[in-house]
């Protein structure tokens, strides 16, 4: 080959390479529309690093209920209507139920935690076991401890109203610990509860924007030595602290079985049926961890938002309290069955879910094969977000979507405008629990906790805006003052909470006293304590 021919070949190869590289980051033929891309980077520079749900929702108004974002050569899909969510996660559930591989999650969980586990036999085994704990009938057997815990929450608020925030967090973690590991934690400063929330806090710190470099987009960053990568040390710390916590709780269950002192906790049951569920001991430990992580924070967040919304919307609170007074009165506190007779409070519960979903962009799913959804091409490996926040605020679906207005759920089962076609929506499960095969398995347990405590709080307490001592003006909480991340947690807020009557205070005290035998079963369960 002559020199000039070699040069021509090299130039052609070079141009070909440049063209290929240039195409990286651009939107492939057939993908859903989306914001304009840049060569190599795609939408990386505009991809929201904080409060992603707000930008996702703004883009949904421009690009529709399914749109795409390019992140380098990768693709993210955002789904923003109930109809598209159903098509994507239910009709195509066989191929859209995977999770994206996140390097930091691999370092902490090694693929064993259920919410982030890949779609496959390991996840299926965990999910099957979780279903046996959390299905509607199984949740009936958790009602005694849930009722006892709810009575403690009311009692704690009565005794120490200034620690409302901590009481709610204790309640949510202790219900999950009792049901899963058979351990009741009577105070917020209990070491198990403290360690649980501390591990959660550290994990959220790693996941926060800037908490680690974009290792999933630039895999070469994985090889940065640990002395220059503090996030790696933090991942190791979280992993070891979590293992210590959850495998100690697991050991407690093993010891109780050995001593024949079972208290019917879920993990005791799983330990005796590991073969049936196809679980190793390691997986059983991570099952307990997954359920704790999925169940405690989310329930606490819901109840905290409920209180913030009651403070900010006294008219709604007053209507809900009138309803509960008419049905329950002064002589007893509400019970779970009462919810059937309280349509306004049911509507209020749905409206809190709509306005303040705990996980506004859910946990991302991933596609295991090339798919066609909504008439568009969805490539294998795409990350798929369910934009729960955007769905709840779609003006085509909801009248005055920014308004906190429970009445919308009185007029229509789904809270949507009358002309909206809701065929196929799962009426019993609000969108804030995700969708498809990965839909939250804890819905029934969460629903019972939420219904009991919302009714109890409205019945027992008046929650009002406190006055600024300097100006005398009421301090209205900022509903948007939350942490940022997969979960949006309201920051501690100011409030005035008082019992609604002496008679109701007495009922709370009596009821808490009557709950003691239920707690005893779980209090004596911590063999190490
Ligand atoms: C208000 C309360 C709750 C909310 C808003 C909530 C919300 C969610 C959401 C949005 C997902 C992701 C669904 C998806 O990928 O499509 C999820 C998953 C999950 N939740 Fe919940 N959740 C709540 C309570 C609970 C409870 C009480 C438990 C268990 C005790 C629980 C355990 C889980 C687990 C294990 C997953 C992972 C499921 C999987 O990947 O297969 N959650 N939850």
UniProtKB/TrEMBL annotation:
Pathway: Secondary metabolite biosynthesis
Main location: membrane
Keywords: Heme, Iron, Membrane, Metal-binding, Monooxygenase, Oxidoreductase, Transmembrane, Transmembrane helix
Lineage: superkingdom: Eukaryota
InterPro entries per the UniProt record, alphabetical: Cyt_P450, Cyt_P450_CS, Cyt_P450_E_grp-I, Cyt_P450_sf, Cytochrome_P450_fung
SUPFAM superfamilies assigned to the protein according to its UniProt record, in alphabetical order: Cytochrome P450 (SSF48264)
Keyword Plastid: no
Subcellular location: Membrane
Keyword Metal-binding: yes
Cofactor(s) essential for the protein: heme
CDD domains xref list: CYP64-like
Similarity section: Belongs to the cytochrome P450 family.
The protein, known as: Cytochrome P450
Source organism (scientific name): Somion occarium
Lineage: Eukaryota, Fungi, Dikarya, Basidiomycota, Agaricomycotina
């Amino acid at each position: 080959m002559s020199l000039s021919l070699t040069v021509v070949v090299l130039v052609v190869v070079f141009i070909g390479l440049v063209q290929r590289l240039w195409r990286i980051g651009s939107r492939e033929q057939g993908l859903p529309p989306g914001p304009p891309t840049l060569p190599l980077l795609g939408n990386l520079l505009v991809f929201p690093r904080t409060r992603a749900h707000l930008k996702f929702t703004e883009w949904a108004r421009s690009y529709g209920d399914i749109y795409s974002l390019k992140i380098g050569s990768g693709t993210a899909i955002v789904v923003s209507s109930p109809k598209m969510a159903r098509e994507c996660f239910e009709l195509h559930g066989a191929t859209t139920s995977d999770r994206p591989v996140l390097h930091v999650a691999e370092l902490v969980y090694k693929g064993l935690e259920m919410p982030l586990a890949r779609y496959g036999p390991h996840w299926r085994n965990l999910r099957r076991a979780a279903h046996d704990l959390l299905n509607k009938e199984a949740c009936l057997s958790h009602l005694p401890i849930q009722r006892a815990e709810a009575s403690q929450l009311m009692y704690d608020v009565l005794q120490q109203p200034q620690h409302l925030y901590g009481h709610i967090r204790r309640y949510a973690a202790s219900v999950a610990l009792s049901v899963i590991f058979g351990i009741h934690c009577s105070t917020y400063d209990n070491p198990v509860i403290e360690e649980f929330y501390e591990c959660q806090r550290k994990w959220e710190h790693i996941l926060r924007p800037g908490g680690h470099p974009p290792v999933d987009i630039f895999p070469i960053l994985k090889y940065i030595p640990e002395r220059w990568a503090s996030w790696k040390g933090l991942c190791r710390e979280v992993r070891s602290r979590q293992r210590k916590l959850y495998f100690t709780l697991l050991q407690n269950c093993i010891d109780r079985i050995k001593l024949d002192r079972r208290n019917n906790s879920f993990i005791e049951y799983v330990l005796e049926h590991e073969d049936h569920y196809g679980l190793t001991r390691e997986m059983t430990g991570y099952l307990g961890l997954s359920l704790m992580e999925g169940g405690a924070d989310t329930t606490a967040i819901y109840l905290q938002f409920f209180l913030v919304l009651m403070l900010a919307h006294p008219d709604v609170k007053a209507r809900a309290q009138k309803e509960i007074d008419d049905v329950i009165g002064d002589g007893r506190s509400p019970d779970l069955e009462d919810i059937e007779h309280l349509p306004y409070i049911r509507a209020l519960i749905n409206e809190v879910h709509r306005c303040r979903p705990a996980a506004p962009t859910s946990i991302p799913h991933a596609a295991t094969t090339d798919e066609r959804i909504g008439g568009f091409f969805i490539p294998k490996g795409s990350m798929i977000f369910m934009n729960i926040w955007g769905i709840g605020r779609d003006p085509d679906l909801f009248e005055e979507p920014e308004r906190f207005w429970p009445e919308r759920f009185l007029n229509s089962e789904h809270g949507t405008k009358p002309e909206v076609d809701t065929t196929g929506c799962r009426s019993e499960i609000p969108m804030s629990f995700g969708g498809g095969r990965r839909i939250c398995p804890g819905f029934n347990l969460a629903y019972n906790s939420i219904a009991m405590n919302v009714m109890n709080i409205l019945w027992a307490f008046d929650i009002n805006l406190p006055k600024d001592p300097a100006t005398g003006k009421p301090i209205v909480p900022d509903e948007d003052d939350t942490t940022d991340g997969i979960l949006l947690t309201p920051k501690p807020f100011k409030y005035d909470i008082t019992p609604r009557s002496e008679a109701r205070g007495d009922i709370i005290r009596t009821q808490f006293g009557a709950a003691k035998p239920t707690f005893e079963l779980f209090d004596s369960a911590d063999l190490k304590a």
